[in-house]
TrEMBL record:
Pfam families per the UniProt record, alphabetical: Chromate_transp
Keywords: Cell membrane, Membrane, Transmembrane, Transmembrane helix
Residue intervals passing through the bilayer: 12-37, 82-107, 119-137, 149-181, 202-224, 236-257, 269-291, 297-321, 333-353, 365-394
Gene: chrA
Membrane-protein topology: Multi-pass membrane protein
Entry annotated with the keyword Nucleus: no
Subcellular compartments: Cell membrane
Family annotation (InterPro entries): Chr_Tranpt_l_chain, Chromate_transpt
Main location: membrane
Recorded family membership: Belongs to the chromate ion transporter (CHR) (TC 2.A.51) family.
Protein name: Chromate efflux transporter
Species in which this protein is naturally found: Aciduricibacillus chroicocephali
Length: 396
């Protein structure tokens, strides 16, 4: 028993060290993160075989939430149980969370929201989101039906001011995708994820908890007059309803916190720009927002709230994944949802990002240069962020 306990502690320490290293070095966004994970977990340490890793990646793409973080959590759970999953998450997210909390405290203390370098970060946000949309559109809207879904989503989000319009658009897109593609997709050959130490009963409990929190938190936040409760509810909902990658959380967070008047657009876009320069998942942007509103404690609570859906979903769905992934009709619905995500992100690119960042011809020129650095010259995102800061400072 003592030998087993020491072995488990050693395993958990190893998970922490490896995930912390990845959290300090994984630049480049979700797709790049998956490449880093594959190199470290599959090729170097052989914690998983190729087939199991591919299946875990497929599951993370199927679920809403931060795909790379869910893969990291899944690897941690497979190698070290539920505690291993938590430790893997902490190691991967901690470096960027600390940087963003410190940056938010600096902004709040010195009130530099109108500085030229802050405006440069806002222009960086334009470039990064535009680049993300290009890549997603090629993959997620390759045919006319999905392009039409994306266009309809764009129009609906821009012209209908309802607070729930994004959720409604996602639901309708799922229905349309199901109707169009349900008979056009062949089911994948099933693979099994080996040695996953979570039972179906525990998975079902996690799924029940996910949906209970999704529906009860907004109700309780209205009944209980507390800023903290409202913040937890909004971050949880944002983390639970994001399909298509970390960039898609931007419009949900903007709607929940900028349009509600909890922080201004300059603060929002400056933080989003800095998030591009740090390693780790884009969802750590929540730490910045939480800190701006409620200090460092708010940053920690925001991170827990926005990532909790990812935990509950990966633990809840993985025991049932072999059955789900063979259903072609479910895949059709997800194709519609992913197409709508492109339209939602395009709407966010226009408002608030473009309308509050590109104010004159010089802003557009700087954006074009930064876009060329990122897309044509394939320069690392952190160099684009530094160039944006310098460009904004020089133009002031």
């Amino acid at each position: 028993m003592e030998v087993r306990r020491k072995s488990r502690i050693k395993t958990l320490i190893e998970i922490l060290i490896v995930s912390l290293k990845l959290g300090c070095t994984s630049f480049g966004g979700p797709i790049a993160h998956l490449g880093y994970f594959h190199q470290e977990y599959v090729r170097r340490r052989k914690w998983m075989d190729e087939e199991s890793y591919a299946d875990l990646v497929a599951l993370s793409q199927f679920l809403p939430g931060p795909a790379s973080s869910q893969v990291g959590i899944g690897v941690g759970v497979i190698h070290g149980g539920v505690i291993g999953g938590i430790i893997s998450f902490v190691g991967f997210t901690l470096p960027s969370v600390l940087v963003l909390i410190v940056f938010a405290m600096y902004l709040h203390t010195f009130n530099v929201n109108e500085a030229g370098w802050i405006h440069g970060l806002k222009i960086v946000a334009v470039v990064v989101v535009a680049h993300a949309i290009l890549g997603m559109a090629k993959k997620l809207t390759p045919d006319m039906p999905r392009q039409t879904i994306a266009l309809a989503a764009l129009i609906a989000v821009l012209v209908i001011p309802a607070a729930t319009i994004q959720i409604i658009v996602i639901i309708l897109a799922a229905v349309v995708g199901f109707l169009i593609y349900r008979n056009q997709i062949a089911a994948d050959k099933l693979q099994s994820i080996k040695q996953f130490p979570v039972s179906r009963r525990f998975g079902l409990l996690c799924l029940v908890a996910f949906f209970l929190l999704l529906f009860l938190l907004p109700i309780l936040s209205r009944v209980i007059s507390s800023d903290w409760f409202a913040i937890i509810s909004d971050f949880y909902r944002s983390g639970a309803l994001v399909f298509g990658g970390g960039h898609v959380v931007l419009p949900l967070l903007e709607q929940a916190f900028v349009q509600a008047g909890r922080l201004n657009e300059s603060q929002f876009l400056a933080g989003y720009g800095v998030t591009q320069a740090v390693p780790g998942p884009l969802f750590t942007f929540a730490a910045y927002i939480g800190t701006i509103m409620k200090g460092s404690l708010g940053g920690v609570i925001a991170i827990v709230a926005i990532f909790l859906p990812a935990f509950l979903l990966i633990l809840g769905v993985l025991p049932f994944w072999n059955t789900i992934r063979g259903n072609a009709k479910v895949k059709g619905a997800l194709m519609g949802v992913n197409a709508a995500v492109v339209g939602i992100l395009l709407a966010a690119l226009y408002n608030p990002i473009w309308t509050t960042s590109i104010l004159d011809v010089y802003d557009f020129v700087l954006a074009a240069i930064l876009f060329g650095m990122l897309v044509f010259w394939k320069m690392p995102p952190w160099t684009v962020v530094i160039a944006g800061i310098l460009g904004g400072w020089l133009m002031l």
